From TrEMBL:
Alphabetical UniProt keywords: Membrane, Metal-binding, Sodium, Transmembrane, Transmembrane helix, Transport
Keyword presence, 4Fe-4S: no
Gene Ontology terms: cellular component: membrane
Domain of life: Eukaryota
Location(s), subcellular: Membrane
Binding site for Na(+): L36, S40
Main localization (coarse): membrane
InterPro entries: Na/ntran_symport, SNS_sf
Membrane-protein topology: Multi-pass membrane protein
Organism: Cirrhinus mrigala
Protein name, as recorded: Solute carrier family 6 member 4
Record flagged with keyword Transport: yes
Segments crossing the lipid bilayer: 27-52
Amino acid sequence: GVEGTGLAFIVFTEAITKMPLSPLWSVLFFIMLFCLGLSSMFGNIEGVLVPLQDLKVFPKSWPKEVIS
């Protein structure tokens, strides 16, 4: 069977092609995957930046918006 990323990019896309308005559902599906990946990246970056901020690795002269 197919599992992992193969499930998302192979099996789900084949199922979507069989649905009515398949181009619309395909676009929405890949936008959803993009948003999920983007939010995961923000979580990973935050997991690295917060401990570095706690250790005061960044200069105080940097605005907080630059770091976060």
